[in-house]
Amino acid sequence: MQLTQDQAAGRIMVALDYPDAAAAEKLLRELAGIPCYMKVGMQLFYAAGPAFVAGLKERGYHVFLDLKMHDIPNTVKGGANSITKLGVDMFNVHAAGGASMMQAALEGVDAALSGGSGVVRPTVIAVTQLTSTSQAVLNDEIGIGGSIADAVIRYAKLAKLAGLDGVVASPQEVTAVKEACGSRFKTITPGIRPAGAEVGDQSRIMTPRQAIEQGTDFMVIGRPITAAANPRAALESIIEELVV
Ligand SMILES: O=c1ccn([C@@H]2O[C@H](COP(=O)(O)O)[C@@H](O)[C@H]2O)c(=O)[nH]1
Fold first, then answer.
1. From the annotation, which residues make up the binding site for substrate?
2. Which amino acid residue places its CA nearest to atom 1 of ligand 1?
3. If we measure between CA atoms, which residue out of 209, 154, 153 comes closest to residue 176?
4. Predicted confidence (pLDDT) per residue in 104-113, tens digit
5. ipTM
6. Which residues bind substrate (predicted)?
7. Theoretical Cys-Cys bridge with 127: which of 10, 145, 168, 202, CB 3.0 to 4.6 Å?
8. Rounded CA separation 34/36 (Å)
9. CA dist 156 → 116, 130, 141, 173, 218 (Å)
């Protein structure tokens, strides 16, 4: 797949996994002008809150709010309602919460949009199996039988049935998800490691180039950028890998 530099950057979601807004703002300054998505996860959201997210939107960033909601349907409906009013472009729930819970998230979105707040409809996706989960952990520790790939596809089909727009999965499962749910069903893939990068706690990984060749829609990348001595150079090198 041939991408321009801006197209490649637009497929990257930088995980702003920082303890406070000041640390995240430092990275934003270092990456200024590169048109990536920004992902706010629980560490930063619990510290800096909705105001930080609203600030990103005011400055024109595309924002994925990665809070992975997993609760009873009524609570998730309320959470989705509040998140939608923040104006984020994407948020997620856990597919393990079931179809009713995922549908409740969509009801929360609809209710927020019907309030005339002027916000756009966010893309709503479901986490399948965390990319840190290995086959052994799934079977022996969590106690779910079968292959990771089968579990991911089961969750993806359920998310599609519930009306969601896509899933979080590892790049290793992108092809199978697209086959099962259609090419327009979005795949958002963490577990991205440039060749030679530290794997850390991730289990199911691919390089950026491999992930794009699998057909991933967006790749989520944190530490290979944020822990680099020069985050901007690290991001530019990943973009070059995608453009070539
Ligand atoms: O299955 C999942 C779901 C979410 N994540 C998130 O993506 C980033 C990955 O960061 P790295 O530093 O590149 O490992 C992180 O924010 C996770 O919370 C995931 O890794 N796997």
1. 17, 39, 66-75, 131, 193, 202, 222-223
2. 130
3. 153
4. 999 999 999 9
5. 0.99
6. 17, 39, 66-75, 131, 193, 202, 222-223
7. 168
8. 6
9. 31, 13, 22, 10, 16
